[in-house]
Amino acid sequence: MDPGAQSLIGVVLCGGESRRMGRDKGLIRSEGLCWAVRMGRKLLPWGLPVVYSIRAEQEASYSAVLPEAYLLADRMGLGGPLNGLHSVHGSWPRADLLLLGCDLQDMDEETIGDLIAAYRAGSAECYIYRDGTFAQPLCGIYTGKGLQRVLAQVPAERSLQGLIRRMHESSLQIKRAGAFANYNSL
Predict the structure, then answer these.
(1) Residue 127 neighbours by CB under 8 Å, 6+ apart
(2) How far apart are CA 71 and CA 182, in angstroms?
(3) How many whole angstroms from its chain centre is CA 129?
(4) Run of H or E residues at 173
(5) What's the chain's Rg over C-alpha atoms?
(6) Which of 113, 61, 53, 55 is nearest to 89 (CA)?
(7) Count of CB atoms within 10 A of residue 59's CB?
(8) What is the pLDDT of residues 40-69, one digit of tens each?
(9) pLDDT tens digits, one per residue of 90-149
(10) Among 15, 81, 91, 156, which residue's CB has the most CB atoms within a 10 Å radius?
(11) In 3-state terms, what secondary structure has residue 157?
């Protein structure tokens, strides 16, 4: 399956270094499944192809857990989730990308569904949730067209927050704050 054949691709970000957690967050098991698999399953109701963004050194461990999944190793040399976004966008520059952090284990179907509905009805370059003035970038949709425009500009952005500030955004208010609980330690 070529994820780029679809206009919207789900991207589960697993390539973080998990310094605060002390172990690979995407491989932590909960309710019998690793966190990466749980996040990928949260995208099933919308029929999205799912790409798991990982670091190159994680490929063997993720291949063992997700043998049928599409794994894409980060290749941009940037830090944090921006590396995964750049890498997936580089592989499918026309596709729009729905990013989900693997540590957002409480993310719910309604929050994802509202985001997709806003994306389908809108014409912005990115769709994100806001908690007051703070953007929540890891349950967000970034259009290929918007990414091409912003990433072609110099200097390159070094954070998702900076990227969002340079994009034409449509923001949604968070209905359920618990959906954005970020598990950096157990």
Answers:
(1) 115, 118, 119, 140, 141, 169, 170, 171, 172
(2) 23
(3) 13
(4) strand 169-173
(5) 15
(6) 53
(7) 13
(8) 999 999 999 999 999 888 899 999 998 889
(9) 999 999 999 999 999 999 999 999 999 999 999 999 999 998 888 999 999 999 999 999
(10) 15
(11) coil
Helix (H) or strand (E) holding 64: helix 59-65
Residue at token pair 């989900």: 100
The structure tokens listed for 100 are 């989900």
For residue 42, give every residue at least 6 positions away whose Cβ sits within 8 Å of its Cβ, in sequence order, or none: 100, 107, 109, 112
* Tokens coding 132: 């007051």
Give the amino acid at 31.
E
Residue 60 is encoded by which pair of tokens? 């063997």
* Tokens at 164, concatenated: 């969002």
Residue 50 CA to residue 153 CA, distance in Å, equals 28
In the three-class reduction of DSSP (H, G, I as helix; E, B as strand; rest coil), residue 163 is classed as: helix
Token pair of 13 as six digits: 């970000």
Place of tokens 């679809």: 6
> May I ask the CATH class of domain 7-177?
alpha beta
Tokens 């390539």 locate to 15
Which are the contacts of 66, defined by CB distance < 8 A and separation ≥ 6? Answer: 36, 37, 40, 52
